[in-house]
Write a structure and sequence with these properties.
Order of helices and strands: EEHEHHEEHHHH
Largest sheet: 5 strands, mixed
Strand order of the largest sheet: 3-2-1-4-5
Mean pLDDT: 92
Shape: globular
Number of strands: 5
Structural class: alpha/beta
Strand content: 5-15%
Length: 204
Amino acid sequence: MGINVLDYPPLIIDYAGARLAGVDEVGRGPLVGSVVAAAVILDPANPIDGLTDSKKLTARKRETLDTLIRERALAFSVAEADAAEVDQLNIYHATHLAMRRAIDGLAPAAEYLLVDGNRLPGHALPGQAVVKGDARHAAIAAASILAKVARDAQMVSLDMRYPEYGFARHKGYPTKEHLAALAVHGPLAEHRRSFAPVQRQLAL
């Protein structure tokens, strides 16, 4: 079930008293759909047990925590950059665009950012990039859960429209099943044309 963020030593944050927003994304690796980001400002007076890296949680546990985060957080926002934006900007810049959109959607606004990874997304707010932040800080873990649940829901919806691709199972990642479906059925409008496996099919 993963490691609870409370088992990690606390981060040293120099912006005392600020509204801290955890920021994370899901969907850099898939061949299809949006990259989804979330930003969460947790309420210190209303803690949520069990927050950790969304990848270490079962789907059912993520959905339970998703509901609790939406009920108890001071603010949360989920945003995305779609496949066309990924192709236009590249996945790195599209990820940061989705993060900035999520940050801008917070009400009340954040005053300091804790962003999973090794780079800040280019937002005007001050902040820290935190490697493995979704396992080190509860707000980043909460953001990872919201983003994962939202993107998985998009893949389930896409699976209902195109069941032959198996999106509900592989969530758009380049599994053998997904690559085989691409070879048989070809890319959809939702596929990322700048990604090599999709480019190869388009060239055939």
